[in-house]
Amino acid sequence: MSSTIVLGWREWVALPALGLDAVRAKVDSGARSSALHVDRQWRFVERGAPWVGFALTPGDAAGHSIEAAAPVFDEREVTDSGGHATRRVFLRTPMRLAGVEREIEINLSDRRGMLFPMLLGRTAIAGTFTIDPARSFLHGRLEPGMAAVVHRRPGPFR
Fold it and tell me: Is residue 18 left, alpha or beta, with left meaning phi > 0 and alpha meaning psi from -120 to 50?
């Protein structure tokens, strides 16, 4: 297993095709799929194929919004940790983490009440990464000027 890269339980993840340099993500082997917080989403057709546009607010003091769009990869039911199932849009996009870039599936979700705007599930980390739950942010910190998505709420995990 020495060829796998160790991640902390939280990391900064880049989603370059979506214009996101850094997204604060909880690495969660208990979650099958990855989820990205969006404030709103809309559908449209591009060259005969279904696409999804979405907007999210980075959580910075400026309160500006980031908009992105991607082809719809799939739509399927996702059951959250509370047992509630909802139908979600999935997209495939490159993710960059710890010097590795790979394409992952992400569903778009309202994670407004969550500490992290992104959940990095086990299908995104399988075969390349392992998790050390006692460590955090092993692969970089937020740099000034990055297009970052950060949810902050009072609590010990800032």
Answer: alpha
